[in-house]
Design a protein that fits this description.
CATH class of the largest domain: Alpha Beta
CATH topology of the largest domain: Nucleotidyltransferase, domain 5
CATH superfamily of the largest domain: Ribonuclease H-like superfamily/Ribonuclease H
Number of helices: 12
CATH architecture of the largest domain: 2-Layer Sandwich
Order of helices and strands: HHHHHHEEEHEHHEHHH
Structural class: alpha/beta
Number of strands: 5
Number of domains: 3
Strand order of the largest sheet: 3-2-1-4-5
Strand content: 5-15%
Shape: elongated
Distance between the termini: 47 Å
Length: 321
Amino acid sequence: MGQVLHGSATTTHAVRAAIQRSKAPLKELAARYGLNRKTVAKWRKQSFLHDAPMGPKAPRSTVLTAEEEAVAVAFRKHTLLPLDDCLYALQATIPHLTRSALHRCFQRHGISRLPEIEGDKAEKKAFRRYPLGYFHIDIAEVRTEEGKLYLFVAVDRTSKYAFARLVQKANGAAARAFLDELVAAVPYQIHTVLTDNGIQFADLPKNRDGPTARMRGHPFDRLCWEHGIEHRLTKPNHPWTNGQVERMNRTLKEATVRRYHYETNRQLEEHLAAFLDAYNFAKRLKTLRGLTPYEAICKAWAEEPNRFKLDPVHLTSGLNT
């Protein structure tokens, strides 16, 4: 079991136990363990091995008086308001009250967290797990000094592998070309793609049930059928359904156009490619338990090689890429 010792401690639990068991004189024990005689004498008298707690015996505020602290505690218990609301209400009578002082006050009295109220929050549902190959796809608009560009972005729901391309026009042909590039770039079989209801991916809702639409199918759907991919659409006016790729859009923008100025489209393309390489091959993600997207793909290759078209180890970045 791990030991929690004081930063200036010169003994361990084992040494302290040995001192308490030993009948040898203090001088001999001090020489044996390289300690001061007073330290040996202190631990011989103790009946425990852990460090005594430091700090004041009765913690109190250095900002609030006892009466002011009692008022803050009573107000919190009576109103059950969040921290900031309590702060704004109490500052009228306690002008020197700060947010940090109030938070520490609530922590000392065990009321820093409000009690859960039944029915206050919706029941959390476990996020459905899918095998590799479920991609979220979306389009974002970016700008350089040369003009406006469209960014097609795809993210694997399971491995978090990200893929993106810049195009001049966000039309159906560009969407189909992006899907072809995605299929060629990913070393495993893509079984599902989720997109919004943009005209690049689907017919307008009012036209989908017509005989012509049902007979010919949307060009993006036809390409999905050729690749053996199931195409799913988000619910109209519910962009959070595609939240994973929406978040990746924001991440890419924050790392590029929102932080830097690009004189040419080429500069943005090169920076975007460098960022995606760093993300896919070096970014350790909490949702992947500390793995990078590339490491997650290699782990899946070892467990389910039948899902792969080629060995992903060959895709690692190097001097010749």
